[in-house]
């Protein structure tokens, strides 16, 4: 495996959304390797597997079976080994209270799942650029929500 590739982990139970994400990612001019898991239990088992390197970035859907994205995010940010992992939340909708809670727990960015592959490609590129350019520190609250309109 190419060591210059960004290792991306996508946790999403919707197969169509996973394919959509993979297609958008493949259209970007960056070297990435995508791994997908389909529920929160599978995600946490993978992240806690001994000897396996952590991904560079986790894209996390909130609504998953067995363990929700909220539960996974909280568990990741409480874990000494995992808490530095950049987590980008993906969801179909965000209410202000939910976004505020995700920010407080420690998510790096939130993305509302866009309707088109072009928009998805734009926000994935934006997230990857922001995380590559800067540190893995959480942005200000004003810059927390990523969208195609930015």
Entry keywords:
6 strands, globular, Rossmann fold, 150 residues, 5 helices, alpha/beta
Order of helices and strands: EHEHEHEHEHE
Query: Can you count the helices?
Result: 5
The domain tally reads 1
How far is it from the N-terminal to the C-terminal residue, by CA? 34 Å
Could you give me the name of the CATH homologous superfamily? Answer: Response regulator
Kindly provide the radius of gyration, computed on alpha-carbon positions and rounded to a whole number of angstroms. Answer: 14 Å
Regions with little confidence, pLDDT below 50 for 5+ residues: none
How much of the residues is beta strand, in percent?
15-25%
| CATH architecture classification | 3-Layer(aba) Sandwich
* CATH topology type: Rossmann fold
Q: What global shape is seen?
A: globular
What is the CATH class name?
A: Alpha Beta
Helix content: 25-40%
Mean pLDDT: 85
Largest sheet: 6 strands, parallel
How many E strands? 6
Strand order of the largest sheet: 2-1-3-4-5-6
Structural class: alpha/beta
What do you see in this structure?
β1, α1 and β2 form a beta-alpha-beta unit. α1 (15-26) packs across α5 and α2 (40-47) runs parallel beside α3 (69-78). The chain has a six-stranded parallel sheet with strand order 2-1-3-4-5-6, sandwiched between helices. It starts with 5 loop residues before the first strand and ends with a strand. It has helices at 15-26, 40-47, 69-78, 96-105, 117-133, and strands at residues 6-11, 32-37, 57-61, 87-91, 109-112, 145-146. It has five helices and six strands. With 150 residues, it is α/β, with parallel strands linked by helices. The protein has a single domain (6-146), classed as Response regulator (Rossmann fold).
